[in-house]
Description:
By secondary structure, the chain is mostly helical.
Amino acid sequence: MRNTALPYNVVELRGLACILLVAYHVVGIPGSGMQVSDGSIYRYATDSFELIRMPLFTFISGLVYALKPARADQLSTFFLKKLRRLGLPFLLVSAAFYLLQTKTPGAHATGAPDSMWQIYVFPYAHFWYLQALFLIFAAVGLLDALRLIERPLGFALAMAAAVAACLTVHTEANVFSVNEACFLFPHFLLGVGVTRFRSLVPVRALLGVAGVALGLGVALHQASLWGLLPHFGWNSSVALLCGMGGAVTLLHAMPHSRTFRTVGKSSYAIYLYHAMFAAAARVVLHKLGAGDGLVFCAALLAGIAGPMVLEALAQLRPWSRAALVGKA
């Protein structure tokens, strides 16, 4: 069933974001994943989307949030729902992933802390995103409850503050992934703005600005990948150009697709569990001596299909729905 509130293929876009994310984790960083060389086409391809992947996920979250924003008289209900949706899977799935990563031979426990309690306080694996997203929801929920971003001027001020935080905030401890939350905050607000104020900005003008931003950002990012410029981090103006320009451009360019829509419907389960299934496929195929092409394709498929099957099984019981995928 289509989302009639937004004239875009948002679910398909989620599917694209999922595929990009799973592909990245299949390839992995040096010392993990497929363990390909820095000059590999696999690493170059996934690195090319480094500044678009997570901003796209977050932009979509902002789009959808703005359809039913937080209200002052329902703020406690809003936070309880976010705790159930994000908190329960975060507590359980991150623990399971930590045990598998540290105890399974061949799993490459890169970045795993010595003590398990640290995975709940500091960024760990891909679960840092749940911490950061909860902080973002909390901030935007409070802003909406206070009615500070209902109108264009208030929203513009909030966006300016978010961009400033993105470019400047960097804490050494990075408790609860606050650095990543600051980096992603402008992208979430952009999604809110596109939903809330889309009638105020002509589509052609919006796409024109987004296209220029994306083109400039990609050109600079590619130059950095080829060693012509320094590496641009997530809290850089180039990251904002790529993330914001890419999100708006892809939103309007994404066609209707049954395949992407099917993947997008299970986006949250795929985000939570893709690494487990992809790693299992990779370990088995590496032991069998499979080539990189087969490992990549099989692990990508496993990282997408496995969580979809798990989600279907979790739907059978209320407790498993809540614990495994955060649904009531």
